[in-house]
């Protein structure tokens, strides 16, 4: 599929902000299933300082600073990408999960190196006995790793309710497990914590998902949103992306922006302002399918 | 030596006159000073002889001198305190530890090898990660390690120097060989204390110090500084280097202030710095000034709240981005705290072979990391004999419990088991006599153009039992200096020379806004305190006479002044204005000593001390000492209020005298003086406003007291030689610009200072504070006092009251304008765009 995406983030400050510093993870990644045809960034007011780099995980990061007083800041990222369906191994044919965990724990295979940073607890994802015991129901002895992971996904989808008011960026994995509700970011964090507690490598993927309009009604512009899901490492195969919020293996309507250990590594927009009083944030995402 | 002066604890041998005797000679530990009881090692001979000659009485005096010197310098707080606990005093044991030249050579080689190794490891993990790919470095030691900062990957420090400065804790084991206990790289904690200990010890034992060819420490600091200049290609003349401290709340603030003064690096706190255009700037009164290098005393994780996404009061948002662009020289580079990882030492022997092709010259303290099978098995089998700690952070795991092995098995790579610590002992002075104490030495190393250089000396941390040394029990520890002997003559290089000259020059031109703010408040608190002390002293003098309080006519006026400031309670409606003696002295005593009343003397002195501590690096050594002495006076208290007030006043006057005599007429001095003048002007306005309505009923007493409060009685007598009359008294206290206590004098000084403050607009009187200063000065100069009489409630008197009200208002407004213009710091707030997805049904 070909998509045109615009992602607009706006801040309105109650008092002038004298200095604003921001980091953006809004440049889509090139992957086997995704080609970036075009990507541009417009920032108002015009920043005095801009810098682009590739981070530890291979994401493209933009940093900018607005260094004069301003009471509004708008960041608009526009991209065009071509996506295709990811190849996935037959879930029941994957290796037993214990075998995968043992192989990763031995750190013996150079081919697994890229998975190692995703094996351990990270700043926003703890790994503890609670998530281990929750995961245990799906990860029965000898079960093929992908089959067990997708079963875990299904359980989280069924047992947790989607609730925008239930969480903030600081919600911990324990809280999600206890409250049984949250948003995509929370479900991704919980899933990752479960997988890592078993010794498996899992990463946090940030991106978008095309919204399919209700039949008979026109699609609302801007009703799309940032999204987040999970990717699990299957040795000798690679990474398999799946979406616990929607209980599905990622297909061609998912657009990948960036990945890291958790949300903190790849928050699409984060910043710090001097002054500015209180701020009001608006985020608008539009994912439009393009004629091929 | 008088027998009676030796307390019973002193060990005395059978021959009765040795200080050392056979004190605490344990076969288990190596003894630094003696090869056998009564047989000093050769390199200790001079010191032992000197100590014997000094004798217990002499050493007691030496110890007392050392204690005073450190107290005056403010070096008495233990830097290794648990921040959650009350800070504890940290003694210096003046008896140094001596290390021979040949032994030092061995130590030096070993430590240099270790830094080289650690630097290669840092370069790898923050670069190609080949060691990780090859399995030489276990991945969990890096990727699961909170000390490894992903955001610093691929940042290459200038000159590829990952460890400009490094410190290691070593001890000497029973076999006589040194072992490394821990490594530390984020910042060199204790470096300033080592310097201070040397300054004190070399003065206490100056004769011996110069006789035995002890290596000087100063060349180390010079080498560090020169290497920094060279590596970062900084300007030789006036490099913009800052020392970044968490601020006076830090227990080690003394150290930061000392190093800042010694090295000539401006002492700054996080909020003094800002990032613009990918560079770091220091916020000064005149604007932003570029910063070229930062010597930080902040941990890695507190260095950049933006990149590391941590909510911390410390750190500079955007600092890591500046490092990424190589626009700042960081000492040490952010991320170097990885070296502090306790379990890292366990793999150093094998990495040393791989990377340097050598064996590790100085062995580690025996420790086993549960992250590998061998270590895991060993720890589980020997749990009872080992100290268990976190493998990745320096935290000791609490008391052994039954399920300890279960805990280890659930996450083996998180645990490290260490053998018991048994360091060598060395002679030391306790408060009674010579004794032995166990010591760990902290060595410091810096990178230079020619390789690594080890500071020839160390900070020794000692305790009388091993337990207090091994666990975090700072209140039971003392520090010692370490003297490294030289084979040849040592370079005569005074420690005190430092790098002062550059620094003083820089300071006179401009200064950080925060410093100006603190100096302004120091001035205000000093003046407010002095005013209150004079007032209280006057009251105590009056009531200590034979008259009962009710019969002292001016007491009502004086007490009213105290009540207006809420220093003593206002009497109930029907109660007499002057309470009975007992009640009055209760009130006055709590005004003196209570610490919690907002305006009591105790809390005002607390404010003075806090403000002074914040600008410690800006005050001369003597001024700092007076502040420390003031602190001592406050803590000690005194039974006699008058004596207490006199001593306080004496210290405050000494401080003022030093400030006006020895402080350069820099901006800092101006801000402090503005603070004093504003405060004194406010007080004077208030005192006269309060007096005016009382004058008609008790003219003589009130006028006399007015002069007394303002310390102007002598001037009045000399000038007027007449009875007290309202117009001349007011003229002297308000309008006489030649009387340093008058309102006019304060306003004229304020107007003078304003002209020297940095400004962006050329035109004079373009700023509000300039206009207010001019208005106040003109107002007082034009004030007409001739027709004012005591017995009249004329229009003139009413006009004067109105004039004083408006003056009080202007002073307040002036002070707000100064703060608004020069001193305001804007708070920062982080924002994050929350993910707001929709679930697809």
Topology record:
The complex is a heterodimer of chains A (292) and B (841).
Chain A: E1 2-24, E2 34-44, E3 49-54, E4 60-66, E5 70-83, H1 97-106, H2 129-136, H3 145-159, E6 161-162, H4 173-179, E7 181-182, H5 184-197, E8 202-209, E9 226-234, E10 238-243, E11 248-249, E12 254-260, H6 263-266, E13 269-275, E14 279-290
Parallel strand pairs in A: 6-7
Antiparallel strand pairs in A: 1-4, 1-5, 1-13, 1-14, 2-5, 3-4, 8-9, 8-12, 9-10, 10-11
Chain B: E1 34-36, E2 39-40, H1 45-73, E3 91-99, H2 101-125, H3 130-133, H4 139-143, E4 165-172, E5 178-184, H5 191-204, H6 206-211, H7 218-231, E6 241-245, H8 253-263, E7 266-269, E8 273-276, E9 279-284, E10 287-290, E11 293-296, H9 319-324, E12 329-331, H10 348-356, E13 363-364, E14 367-369, H11 373-381, E15 387-390, H12 404-410, E16 415-418, E17 425-429, E18 434-448, E19 451-454, E20 459-463, H13 466-470, E21 478-484, H14 500-509, H15 513-543, H16 555-564, H17 581-593, H18 601-614, H19 621-636, H20 641-662, H21 667-695, H22 699-709, H23 713-720, H24 726-735, H25 743-754, H26 768-781, H27 795-823, E22 828-832
Parallel strand pairs in B: 3-21, 5-13, 6-7, 6-11, 11-12
Antiparallel strand pairs in B: 1-2, 4-5, 4-18, 8-9, 9-10, 14-16, 15-16, 17-18, 18-19, 18-20, 20-21
Taking Cα atoms only, what radius of gyration of chain B do you get, to the nearest Å?
A: 32 Å
Outline type of chain A: globular
Q: Could you name the ranges of chain B where pLDDT drops below 50 across 5 or more consecutive residues?
A: 1-17, 78-86, 498-508, 836-841
* Euclidean distance between termini CA atoms of chain B: 94 Å
């Amino acid at each position: 599929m070909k998509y045109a995406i615009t992602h607009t983030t706006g801040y309105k400050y109650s008092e002038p902000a004298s200095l604003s510093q921001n980091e953006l993870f809004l440049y889509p990644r090139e992957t086997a299933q995704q080609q970036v045809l075009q990507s541009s960034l417009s920032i108002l007011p015009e920043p005095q300082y801009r810098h682009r780099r590739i981070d530890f995980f291979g994401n493209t990061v933009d940093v900018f600073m607005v260094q004069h007083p301003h009471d509004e800041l708008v960041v608009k990222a526009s991209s065009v990408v071509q996506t295709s369906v990811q190849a996935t191994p037959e879930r029941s044919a994957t290796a037993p999960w214990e075998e995968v965990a043992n192989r990763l724990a031995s750190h013996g295979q150079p081919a697994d190196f890229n998975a190692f940073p995703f094996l351990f607890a990270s700043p926003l994802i703890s790994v503890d006995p609670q998530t281990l015991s929750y995961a245990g129901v799906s990860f029965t002895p000898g079960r093929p790793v992908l089959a067990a992971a997708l079963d875990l996904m299904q359980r989280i989808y069924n047992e947790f309710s989607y609730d925008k008011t239930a969480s903030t960026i600081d919600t911990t994995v324990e809280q999600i497990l206890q409250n049984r509700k949250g948003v995509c970011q929370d479900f991704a964090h919980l899933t990752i914590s479960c997988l890592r507690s078993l010794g498996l490598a899992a990463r946090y993927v940030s991106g978008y998902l095309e919204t399919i309009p209700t039949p008979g009604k026109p699609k609302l512009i801007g009703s799309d949103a940032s999204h987040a899901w999970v990717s699990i490492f299957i040795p000798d195969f690679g990474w398999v992306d799946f979406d616990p919020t929607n209980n599905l293996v990622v297909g061609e309507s998912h657009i990948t922006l960036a990945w890291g250990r958790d949300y903190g590594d790849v928050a699409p927009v984060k910043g710090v302002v001097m002054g500015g009083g209180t701020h009001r944030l608006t985020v608008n995402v539009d994912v439009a399918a393009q004629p091929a | 030596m008088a027998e009676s002066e030796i307390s019973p604890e002193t060990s005395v041998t059978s021959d009765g006159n040795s200080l050392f005797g056979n004190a605490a000679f344990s076969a288990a530990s190596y003894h630094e000073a003696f090869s056998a009881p009564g047989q000093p090692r050769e390199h200790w001979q001079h010191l032992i002889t000197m100590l014997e000659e000094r004798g217990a009485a002499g050493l007691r005096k030496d110890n007392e001198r050392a204690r005073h010197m450190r107290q005056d310098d403010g070096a008495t707080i233990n830097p290794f305190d648990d921040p959650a606990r009350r800070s504890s005093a940290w003694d210096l044991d003046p008896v140094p530890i001596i290390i021979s030249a040949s032994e030092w050579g061995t130590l030096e080689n070993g430590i240099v090898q270790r830094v080289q190794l650690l630097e290669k490891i840092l370069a790898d993990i923050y670069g190609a990660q080949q060691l990780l790919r090859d399995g030489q470095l276990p991945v969990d030691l890096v990727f699961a390690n909170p000390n490894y900062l992903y955001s610093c990957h691929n940042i290459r420090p200038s000159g590829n120097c990952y460890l400009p400065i490094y410190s290691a804790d070593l001890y000497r084991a029973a076999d006589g060989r040194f072992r490394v206990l821990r490594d530390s790289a984020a910042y060199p904690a204790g470096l300033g204390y080592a310097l201070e200990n040397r300054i004190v010890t070399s003065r206490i034992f100056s004769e011996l110090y110069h006789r035995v060819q002890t290596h000087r420490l100063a060349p180390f600091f010079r080498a560090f500084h020169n290497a920094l200049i060279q590596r970062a290609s900084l300007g030789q003349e006036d490099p913009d280097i800052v020392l970044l401290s968490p601020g006076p709340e830090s227990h080690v603030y003394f150290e930061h202030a000392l190093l800042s003064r010694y090295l000539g690096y401006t002492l700054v706190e996080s909020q003094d710095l800002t990032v613009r255009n990918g560079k770091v700037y220091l916020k000064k009164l005149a604007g932003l000034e570029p910063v070229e290098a930062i010597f930080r005393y902040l941990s890695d994780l507190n260095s950049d709240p933006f990149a590391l996404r941590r909510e911390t009061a410390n750190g500079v948002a955007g600092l890591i981005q500046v490092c990424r662009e190589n626009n700042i020289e960081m000492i040490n580079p952010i991320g170097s705290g990885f070296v502090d990882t306790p379990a890292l030492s366990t793999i150093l022997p094998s990495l040393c072979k791989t990377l340097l092709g050598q064996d590790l010259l100085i062995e580690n303290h025996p420790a086993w990391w549960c992250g590998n099978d061998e270590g895991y098995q060993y720890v589980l089998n020997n749990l009872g004999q080992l100290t268990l700690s976190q493998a990745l952070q320096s935290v000791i795991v609490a008391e052994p419990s039954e399920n300890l092995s279960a805990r280890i098995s659930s996450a083996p790579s998180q645990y490290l088991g260490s053998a018991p610590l048994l360091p060598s002992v060395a002679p030391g002075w306790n408060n009674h006599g010579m004794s032995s104490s166990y010591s760990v030495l902290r060595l410091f190393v810096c990178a230079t153009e020619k390789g690594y250089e080890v500071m020839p000396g160390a900070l020794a941390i000692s305790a009388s039992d091993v337990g207090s040394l091994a666990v975090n029990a700072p209140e039971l520890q003392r520090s010692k200096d370490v003297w490294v002997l030289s084979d040849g003559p040592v370079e005569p290089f005074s420690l005190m020379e430092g790098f002062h000259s550059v620094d003083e020059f820089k300071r006179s031109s401009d200064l950080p806004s925060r410093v100006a703010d603190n100096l302004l408040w120091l001035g205000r608190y000093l003046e407010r305190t002095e005013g209150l002390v004079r007032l209280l002293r006057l009251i105590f003098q009056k009531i200590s006479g034979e008259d009962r309080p009710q019969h002292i006519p001016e007491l009502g006026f004086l007490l009213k002044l105290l009540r207006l400031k809420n220093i003593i309670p206002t009497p109930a409606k029907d109660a007499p204005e002057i309470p009975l003696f007992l009640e009055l002295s209760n009130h006055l005593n709590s005004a003196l000593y209570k610490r919690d009343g907002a305006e009591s003397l105790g809390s005002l002195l607390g404010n003075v001390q806090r403000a002074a501590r914040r600008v410690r690096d800006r005050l001369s050594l003597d001024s700092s000492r007076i502040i420390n002495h003031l602190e001592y006076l406050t803590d000690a208290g005194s039974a006699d209020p008058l004596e207490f007030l006199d001593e306080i006043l004496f210290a405050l006057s000494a401080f003022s005298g030093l400030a006006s005599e020895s402080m350069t007429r820099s901006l800092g001095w101006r801000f402090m003086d503005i603070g004093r003048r504003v405060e004194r002007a406010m007080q004077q306005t208030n005192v006269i406003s309060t007096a005016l309505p009382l004058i008609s009923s008790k003219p003589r007493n009130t006028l006399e007291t007015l002069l007394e409060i303002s310390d102007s009685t002598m001037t009045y007598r000399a000038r007027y030689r007449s009875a007290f009359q309202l117009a001349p008294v007011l003229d002297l206290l308000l309008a006489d610009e030649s009387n340093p206590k008058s309102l006019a004098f304060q306003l004229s000084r304020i107007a003078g200072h304003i002209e020297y403050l940095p400004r962006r607009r050329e035109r004079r009187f373009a700023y509000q504070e300039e206009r207010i200063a001019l208005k106040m000065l003109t107002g007082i100069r034009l004030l007409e006092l001739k027709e004012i009489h005591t017995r009249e409630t004329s229009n003139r008197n009413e006009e004067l009251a109105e004039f004083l009200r408006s003056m009080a208002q202007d002073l307040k407004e002036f002070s707000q304008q100064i703060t608004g213009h020069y001193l305001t710091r804007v708070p920062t707030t982080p924002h994050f765009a929350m993910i707001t997805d929709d679930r697809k049904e």
